Amino acid sequence: MQATIESDIYIFRFMNSHRIVRDGNSRLWVIYDDEDEVTGDWYVRVAYSDNNGASWTIEEVATGSDTLWTSYAIGVDSSNTIHVIWSHTGALKYQTRTSSGAWSSVTTIYAETATYSDLAVDFSDNVHVVYLDYTTSRRVVYIKKTGGSWGSPTVLVTATVDDAISFPAIIVDSNDYPHIAYSYFDLTPGDVRNIFYIYQTAGGWQAAEQVSVDGGSPQSQPAIIIDSSGNIHVAWLGRGSPLNPTVSQYLYRKRTSGVWGTIAYITDDSGVNYGYNHGLSVTGDGELHLIFMDTTSGNLYRSVNSGSGWGSKETLISAVSTGFGATLWSNVGNGQLASNYAVWYYKTNDPLWDSIIFLSFSVFIPKIFYF
């Protein structure tokens, strides 16, 4: 099933944050941004669907007369309250919407320069947020909301001079502890880029672990999930594959009982330009799904790992335009699994305006799950 959420919008965000969730009433929620082509105003919007994505109702979260709206994410708690974050002119904002439709006032989580943020809601309805602080140096920062109060921010990683960090992504486990993946670019000397993983236990934050093997651009945009056995799964866009080492491919690695397994190459194709904004999800029985875009052809693909390795890519949608396309996060739900939903936006023939498309390719499986 494919349905258009909104047409004639301007949306172009390389992000790996949670952007689609399903609440306890089976209502689907999506967060995205848009620019009014007449007034030039910029919006952060949510859309929800009560009929499995066939039709959508749109609500505005924030608006302004500039284009500095970036880095948004969405989550849902056990009361079906929606939690959203976004950045405006650098400041990181937070807002909630109750199941009755009442929006809270806006809270500023961080007033300086924050970008590339992500959000996850745990089983106790605490809100976990990770973001990049660009105020004085590039830092990965974590902050948690317990009840009605935000705690103090914790700096997890600080880039050295001339290095860079990007694309942090967060999940929580069954004990309400956060797990974060991010990209670190060691730019001097040379250009060595890697994916790292850091997590919290009862003993505090543990040392960062390198997931990828030293490589050049991109080694970026990690997608991170956790399965029902507590295994960590990370997929990312990188280079160094056996057959096509200079072409960006999708890579994957699994962490079991504290040990990282062998890196797997989900794709290893020549002459293909795989794009950003992929999605990684897992079913209740542990089957992994990666949704990704080939920007050379504009095709949207899925690859499945049922436990014996990644299968060949399956075309979900063939190109409908020659412009940019990307998948958004397919992780859905808090404490339940809505199996394998994706949102895809694509560039139309108009050089400025896109349509945001909802794509469903699997039925809802009501199993207990965490992400």
Give a structural overview.
With 371 residues, this protein is mainly beta. The chain has strands spanning 2-9, 20-22, 28-35, 42-49, 57-64, 69-76, 82-88, 91-97, 107-110, 114-121, 127-133, 139-146, 149-150, 154-158, 164-172, 178-186, 192-201, 204-205, 209-210, 220-226, 232-238, 249-256, 259-260, 264-265, 279-282, 288-294, 299-305, 314-317, 325-327, 341-347, 354-360. Strand 2 (20-22) and strand 3 form a beta hairpin.
Descriptive keywords:
371 residues, mainly beta, 5-stranded antiparallel beta sheet, 31 strands, 0% helix, 51% strand, disordered C terminus
Provide mean pLDDT, rounded.
Answer: 79
Derived from helix and strand composition plus strand pairing, the structural class reads mainly beta
Q: Total number of helical segments?
A: 0
Largest sheet: 5 strands, antiparallel
Q: Which ranges are low-confidence, i.e. pLDDT below 50, for 5 or more consecutive residues?
A: 322-339, 363-371
Number of strands: 31
Task: Kindly summarize this structure in a few lines.
It is built from no helices and 31 strands. The protein is mostly beta strands and 371 residues long. Strands 10, 11, 12, 13 and 14 form a five-stranded antiparallel β-sheet that branches.
